[in-house]
Amino acid sequence: MIKQNLTSAIPADSEIDLTNCEREPIHILGHVQSFGCLISVSNDWIINHASLNTNDILGIDHGDLIGDPFNNYVLPDFVHTIRGRLQMLSHADAVERIFGLKVVANGGLFDVALHRSGHSIVMEFERSDAHDVTDYAGYMRPMLDRVQTASSIEAMCTVAARQIKAITGFDRVMAYRFAPDDSGEVIAEARMPDMEPMLGLHFPASDIPAQARALYKRSLLRIISEVDGETVPILPPASPEGVPLDLSLSSLRAVSSIHLEYLRNMDVSASMSVSIVVRGKLWGLFACHHRSPNILSYKARTGTELFAQMFAYVLDQRQGDLERSEAELARQMHDDLMARLADGQSIVENFSTIADAVSSVIACDGIATWIDGEFKSQGRTPSREEILPLLRFLNTTAASRIFATDRLSDSYPAAQEFSDCSAGILVLPVSRSPRDYLILFRQEISRAVLWAGKPEKPAEPGPNGTRLTPRKSFETWKEIVRNQSQPWSESEIRVANSLRMTLLEVVLRVTDAASRDRERASDHQELLIAELNHRVRNILNLIRGLVAQSGSEARNIADFTGNVGGRIDALARAHDKITRENWNAASLHDLLATEIDAYLGSNRDRLVLTGPDALLQPEAFSTLALVMHEMITNSAKYGAIGEAGGRIEIELVAEEDGALRIKWQEIGGPPVRAPKRRGFGSTIIERSIPHELKGTAKLKYDIAGLRADFMVPANCVAEFIDPAQVKSKQSADKADYHMMALSGHVLVLEDNLIIAMDAEDIVLQLGAQKVSLASRVDEAERLMSEQKFDFAILDVNLGSQTSEPIAEELQKAGIPFAFATGYGEGTSFSAKFPNIVFIQKPYSKESMQRALAVMALSS
Fold first, then answer.
1. Which of 64, 276, 349, 823 is the most exposed place for a label (fewest CB within 10 A)?
2. What is the CATH number of the domain that holds 828?
3. Distance of CA 220 to the CA centre of its chain
4. Is there a single domain that holds both residue 775 and residue 716?
């Protein structure tokens, strides 16, 4: 899979001693791929050329050309351009590329690659693709923007693989990362659904020999356009001095038959690899596979190579950010621990705090400490009896350095007895004498590593001899790892070093700081007790007043109990409401609905409420809760609610100065007259708002029913809400657009590749199983003729076209769809498609879900 060019550093017609590969000169002999041609020139004389293709592609036919002046065959302007570009070759491995050059008088336009090879200048010619008008350079910024927004390195590689797949058309693109031991793993993949998945597979270091890795650093892009295609020999294969032409930097050079056999075993007909080089080191590769020949234009390859180079810079920046983040994490952990351990206690006394902090930043299965002969542990660790011999071993290590290993049994064989909990350890010495330690344990991983073939047997004899013959089976091989834990990363060891400094600071901390902290804590506690005492006294005074006043008006014990209980319940409900709102403003509509439900239940329509809702400040809300409770209670006892046909009409009015006016009218109740004496309830109604809120309260006892007019000042009202908006919001909430999802196969018709990929991401997030992208009407029509779709998103404006023909076909087929627009094209479509929803660009998950919700409500 990933090794499409693994053996491409091996000459096709000669042997290389792989045991001495790092010192072996890399000369690619033999042939070049037949879609281009090559000419080597030294001192203006032709030294080597690709036979046959020189005539077939350039139209130069003059014997074998060797020893002729190059100027005799090409235009003077071409020679002038080449000489100018030679000045721009800045280093030995530099390659210049020139697009759309006229080379010979009667020929077409060519893309030319130019580099130095020893004393020769090597020029490679490919016919310029006049149909490829893609602005690859223009794609770089949006492509890199998408990479930069990814949340992790693996996610960055996934985004990059998808974008390379989009601009090159390969069936599968993989991101392959090298490990420190030069083995590799596929960490990201973008592929056609019917391609075999390779994500997560590992490959041994021997799959990519050292000379191949060296070549990947020199030449960033390698392509095999057609595995079974013809190749053209280089004539002559060596210079007059007998030195073979070095084609290490040639993009046309053919590869060994071994590697071609490898690709055929994988049913791959074309491949390409693009190196990811970070700070001069080969970090990994983008590896591309295609099941049919794929001759990619020079512009597309150059654009892909440029993207890989820019990706490497972004990757380097992200890795630097991660290192800085780790350093910041260590600093924060230091500050947090120093703040939490401010009481001057020892590490043992604060062990749980330290263990929790450490395990939050360094993954481990258990933590133990041994300080001054005292042992404590948390999680999966050896027992005290097993730890004691281990401590004697640790005493032989350096006194002031971190000790870390993921194979403890290799240096301490007795660890095999408890490898289930301590196959790997990370040791932090926190003193010199006596030797005290904080030890982190990782249990045996017993992991199954998925190898793409048995790692200890990377090569087998085959039709090409005993050289690197590729394995014929690509089934995964499971290697079970024993007595080994997950390795400790460099970043984890750096964090551990910072933690060690923190623990040493804890050990050396003076006790007077702890004494000051305890004194401050005591003062704070006394303040809290005093505040609590004040609040409790206020509550008790309020309840005492309610009891006393209610008792004075009660006719019997039941009446007294009902009055007191009802008023306390009203205060409790008000308190619950404003505490649920985090002591923010609360709704008067909700308050009235809660109170009336206690009396009317399902007949709550007997309360007719008009006008805007008012959000009351917490202090005003409690006051209004008592007033409305008394009003509704009195109505139930003596007024309209107590009669079967009675009702209450309440009008809320927002005054110009921001004040709230509450107009109360009872209708259909018994005749009403003013009470002969003022009870506590009447006092609450008439005096609470004027006294506590500085408002007004007026009551009129009409024979037809009680009328009341309350004015609540503007400073007690946070805001007014239009009931129509509230109902609309409630309706939208019922639609619960956040729960809207898609399924099945979705067509996205969008002429901009980057925007189309954004839409594809969102549609997949919403649950679609498959997404097909089209940029033109004819392409969408072809897809619809070949496949069945469950939903479609159509960009209204496609440049010189509109999506109207596709919309008509979808409508005839009964397939639901939505238009997408960035400006006003939707107006002209409204008459033809009156029930279709428009999604406003730029695409977002929320805008699509809202559109789906509207469609669901209208269906």
1. 823
2. 3.40.50.2300
3. 28
4. no
Alpha-helix runs per DSSP H in 127-232: 136-148, 153-168, 210-218
Beta bridge partners of 746: 771, 791
Q: How many domains does the chain have?
A: 3
Tally Cβ neighbours within 10 Å of residue 194: 7
Average pLDDT along the chain:
79
- Sorted by sequence, the CB contacts under 8 Å of residue 435 that are 6+ apart come out as 391, 394, 395, 399, 429
Number of Cβ within 10 Å of residue 845's Cβ equals 14
Give yes or no: residues 838 and 707 share one domain.
no
Q: Which phi and psi angles does 53 have, rounded to 5°?
A: -65, -25
Q: Does 573 reside within a domain?
A: yes
Cβ neighbours of 573 (radius 10 Å)? 18
Of 554, 593, 555, 559, give the one whose Cα is nearest residue 577.
593
- Please write the tens of the pLDDT for every residue from 516-554: 555 666 655 665 454 445 444 445 544 554 555 455 555
For the stretch 378-395, pLDDT in tens is: 999 998 888 888 888 888
* Contact assessment for residue 265 and residue 95, using Cβ atoms and an 8 Å cutoff: no
**For residue 668, what are the CA distances in angstroms to 631, 635, 674?**
16, 11, 17
Rounded average pLDDT over 240-259: 84
Among residues 288, 131, 282, 128, which one has the least CA distance to residue 217? 282
Question: What span, in angstroms and rounded, lies between the C-alpha atoms of 540 and 546?
Answer: 10
DSSP annotation of 677 reads S
Judge whether 290 and 327 are in contact, CB under 8 Å: no
Distance in angstroms (rounded) separating the CA atoms of residues 215 and 685: 91
% residues pLDDT > 70 (the chain): 79
Single-letter amino acid code for the residue at 704: A
**Backbone dihedral angles phi then psi of residue 626, each to the nearest 5 degrees:** -65, -45
Rounded distance between C-alpha atoms, residue 41 and residue 486, angstroms:
55
SS3 of 189, please? strand
Q: Distance between CA atoms of 345 and 578, rounded to whole angstroms? A: 42
DSSP helix/strand/coil, 630:
helix
Contact between 39 and 123 (Cβ < 8 Å): yes
In this structure, is residue 5 part of a structural domain?
no
Q: Give the CA angle between residues 830, 832, 836 to the nearest 5°.
A: 55
Largest separation between any pair of C-alpha atoms in the chain = 130
The radius of gyration computed from the CA coordinates of the chain, to the nearest angstrom, equals 40
Domain boundary at 694, 722, 750, which?
Answer: 722
Across the beta sheet with 586-587, the strand order is 586-587, 613-616, 717-721
- Residue 5: pLDDT above 60? no
How confident is the model over 14-18, as a mean pLDDT?
Answer: 31
Which residues, 6+ apart, have CB-to-CB distance to 655 below 8 Å? Answer: 661, 711, 714
By residue count, the chain amounts to 859
d(C-alpha 474, C-alpha 1), whole Å: 8
Structure token digits, residue 428? 């932090």
Q: Is residue 36 part of a domain?
A: no
423 within some domain = yes
CA dihedral 672, 678, 679, 684 (to 10 degrees): 90
Strands 613-616, 586-587: pairing kind = antiparallel
| H or E element at residue 357 | helix 351-361
Q: What mean pLDDT comes out for the span 487-501?
A: 83
Rounded to whole angstroms, the Cα distance separating 98 from 103 reads: 11
Q: Tell me: the pLDDT tens digits for 156-196?
A: 999 999 999 999 999 999 999 998 778 888 999 999 998 88
Question: In this structure, are residues 66 and 49 in contact, taking their beta carbons and an 8 Å threshold?
Answer: yes
